[in-house]
Write a sequence for this structure.
């Protein structure tokens, strides 16, 4: 595949990623005299801030993940390609990707890398098996199935100890995602599922929010952090701070307290929201360009979001380390628009990249929901909490959702949720156990390969 339906040697822009940064860049290039190819490993644009609502049955996948192809259908200078990028050659100016069993290569004149970040387990990748994070649609559906599966199993088991374990939900990480997740599981148990089981009382479920840090929502400051904590406790979430997770297994987690002592929390359902690691494409670019990467794999970019000695390559969004910018969607969106503007201007006027003005981030504030009707918001010097912050959160998220239809349906789903209804609590065994099944299949394939290698070596061994 070549880069797009190239017209008369037009400038070719390749964008990696259809998230906030990639999509913003593609849209901002609409009027530019360029051919754009947007390649991403998923066919949708994912609105990650509302993933937790899919994981807890409030919203459906379609509402937060519209097809990128349809979103960009009317933008004639964009070609959308589904593909997992595994190689970037900065000298040849090519990007290599695979879509299923098909390999293809894209040539570029300008490259925008917006591949985002993955969950980080701080070197303990095996934790992921028992405590999935929440970064993708797969994650949200798996978590929803695991959460619902725990209530279902608790209803039918006669083993009291197992029932307690099934009705204990641990969320690791008291940042916005952890707070939102813990709050929603508590509300699901105490409100939505009320009276719907016969042998268990879902309201007796324990929801525990664990963090190694001493505060809830540290970036929001003490006042809002304490407000969020108080609200969570009010709806029944247990908060355990200064508790570092040292191990995770099928039956629960082990935590280390400040005095060095270790203890277990038995819980079948564990959810990880404790850290992020930038896409490995950042490291790949750094190795070829001499750029530095930080411990989280983020690339230290130039002030114009380009790489050292490579003004034609931009890195944006969650993959960058610049001026302590946070890993939030406005940084990615503004970065995408900024780099699109530089490319469009340079293509139109022939201006040198040396004349670029630095990227300036405009911080519009941050917000997180805690429960129904309750959120916290920090906007410049203003700190809001409770119902007002929640209304603000609602309006902002509606405004940023892609598509009029999605906004209407989301509003409808939120309306139903206010009456304690959740329309999307369906779960399947494949969602719940797919990850374990894949891991088992991989292990048995590895064992098969080892056995075949050993057999071949035995056949080749010289006879005594
Ligand atoms: C659960 C959750 C809640 C959040 N809540 C908020 C919030 O309330 N407010 C806020 O501002 N921010 C929030 N964020 C952060 C925000 O979503 C990110 O900062 C933002 O998505 C970053 O945009 P991005 O374009 O850099 O990456 P992403 O939006 O993550 O997009 C990355 C894209 O790259 C693609 N990709 C990755 N690797 C490859 C590859 N090798 N080949 C091809 N394609 C690839 C992915 O498929 C995806 O399309 C939240 C994040 C999460 C996970």
């Amino acid at each position: 595949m070549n880069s797009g339906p190239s017209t008369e040697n037009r400038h070719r822009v390749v964008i990696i990623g259809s998230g906030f940064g990639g999509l913003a860049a593609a849209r901002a290039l609409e009027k530019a005299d360029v051919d754009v190819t947007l390649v991403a490993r998923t066919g949708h644009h994912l609105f990650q801030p509302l993933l937790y609502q899919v994981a807890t049955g409030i919203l459906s996948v379609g509402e937060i993940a519209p097809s990128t192809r349809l979103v960009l259908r009317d933008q004639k200078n964009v070609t959308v390609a589904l593909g997992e990028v595994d190689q970037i050659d900065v000298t040849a100016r090519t990007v290599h990707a695979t879509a299923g069993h098909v390999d293809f290569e894209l040539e570029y004149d300008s490259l925008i890398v917006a591949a985002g970040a993955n969950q980080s387990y701080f070197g303990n990748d095996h934790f992921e098996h028992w405590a999935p994070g929440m970064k993708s649609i797969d994650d949200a559906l798996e978590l929803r199935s695991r959460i619902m599966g725990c209530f279902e199993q608790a209803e039918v088991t006669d083993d009291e100890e197992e029932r307690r374990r099934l009705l204990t939900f641990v969320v690791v990480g008291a940042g916005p995602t952890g707070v939102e997740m813990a709050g929603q599981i508590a509300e699901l148990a105490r409100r939505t599922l009320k009276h719907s089981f016969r042998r268990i009382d879902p309201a007796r479920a324990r929801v525990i929010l664990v963090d190694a840090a001493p505060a809830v929502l540290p970036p929001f400051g003490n006042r809002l952090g304490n407000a969020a904590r108080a609200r969570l406790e009010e709806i029944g979430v247990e908060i355990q701070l200064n508790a570092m997770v040292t191990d995770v297994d099928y039956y629960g987690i082990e935590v280390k307290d400040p005095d060095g002592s270790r203890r277990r929390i038995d819980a079948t359902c564990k959810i990880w929201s404790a850290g992020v690691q930038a896409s490995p494409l950042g490291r790949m670019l750094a190795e070829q360009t001499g750029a530095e990467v930080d411990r989280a794999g983020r690339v230290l970019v130039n002030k114009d979001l380009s790489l050292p000695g490579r003004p034609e390559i931009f890195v944006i969004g969650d993959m960058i380390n610049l001026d302590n910018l946070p890993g939030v969607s406005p940084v990615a969106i503004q970065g995408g628009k900024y780099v699109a503007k530089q490319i469009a201007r340079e293509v139109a006027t022939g201006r040198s990249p040396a004349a670029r003005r630095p990227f300036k981030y405009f911080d519009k504030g941050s917000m997180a929901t805690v429960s129904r009707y309750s959120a916290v918001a920090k906007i410049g010097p203003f700190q809001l909490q409770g119902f007002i912050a929640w209304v603000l959160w609602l309006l902002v998220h509606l405004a940023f959702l892609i598509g009029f239809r999605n906004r209407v349906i989301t509003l409808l789903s939120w309306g139903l949720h206010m009456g304690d209804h959740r329309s999307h609590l369906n779960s399947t065994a494949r969602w719940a156990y797919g990850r374990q099944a894949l891991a088992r299949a991989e292990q048995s394939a590895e064992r098969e390969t080892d056995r075949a290698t050993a057999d071949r070596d035995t056949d080749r061994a010289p006879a005594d």
Q: What stands out?
A: The radius of gyration is 24 Å.
